[in-house]
Design goal:
255 residues; alpha+beta; Alpha-Beta Plaits; five-stranded mixed β-sheet; 7 strands; 60% helix
Length: 255
């Protein structure tokens, strides 16, 4: 049965319990008000029996009301726990467990949400020197390094941009509403400078660099896959060029 239907039926059941309690209490007070206060011994005995009946009845009604209220609270707690668990599972599905950044799934979804006719930028990043550090010092050191780099990337982008870890030592940034190549280059420069700073892990001083590819949608109606393809192409060009940290996509790169 659907959770919403169950909740509706249960709330109606609780309402019936409350109404029954109120009706019972009303009956108690009505009977007590109109019963004969004087009379014979038989009448007084009947009054005592009636008072006992009313006492037991009111106690039972209050117990039923309390039971219904506790059941209602228990259902609310269960529903809250279930919703929290569902939210946590959903968040985990869209976040990288190592760094806490949005993952590839979240990146793809954010990219798909961009207006096709809008002006946007995508930056693809790939770390230089990470594999050697990971192989030499172990995965624990490599993971610690990635967490530091992830924090630096998140701190170097603009508010409203999406910085994601795609996997391994690959990262990406979506900059919605960005059409100026100079601003895109400035963001890439901040990213490169931040990543290049020394990282201290377990008494070791580690150094990594990065290659960054930039693609702008400009006035073109580019599909998300085409925008990322162009950014990847620019990234490969940057990594092939000695001493070049980032490269803006140009049609000449297709040759």
């Amino acid at each position: 049965m659907d959770a919403g239907i169950r909740a509706l039926l249960f709330n109606r059941g609780l309402a019936l319990v409350v109404l029954a309690a109120l009706a019972g209490l009303y009956g108690i007070f009505a009977l007590d008000l109109f019963q004969d206060e004087g009379g014979t011994i038989a009448g007084r005995r009947m009054r005592i029996e009636l008072d006992e009946f009313l006492l037991y009845g009111s106690t039972l009604i209050l117990m039923l009301f309390g039971f219904g209220l506790n059941q209602h609270r228990g259902r609310l707690r269960e529903r809250t726990k279930r919703l929290r668990a569902e939210r946590d599972a959903r968040d985990l599905g869209f976040h990288d467990p190592l760094t806490g950044m949005p993952n590839r799934r979240a990146f793809d979804e954010a990219l798909g949400d961009l207006a096709p006719s809008g002006l946007h930028a995508v930056l693809m990043l790939d770390l230089n020197g990470f594999k050697a550090i990971n192989d030499t010092h172990g995965h624990a050191t490599g993971d610690a390094l990635l967490r530091v780099i992830a924090d630096r990337i998140a701190g170097a982008v603009r508010e409203g941009d999406t910085a994601a870890r795609l996997g391994g030592d690959e990262f990406a940034v979506i900059a919605p509403g960005l059409a100026d190549p100079e601003i895109a280059k400035a963001i890439a420069g901040r990213l490169a400078s931040s990543i290049a700073r020394p990282v201290f892990v377990d008494g070791r001083t580690l150094h990594v660099g990065t290659g960054i590819g930039i693609a702008l949608s400009r006035a073109e109606k580019l599909a998300p896959t085409e925008l990322t393809r162009r950014a990847d192409l620019a990234l490969y060009a940057a990594k092939r060029s000695e001493g070049v940290a980032f490269r803006l996509y140009e049609p000449q790169l297709e040759a």
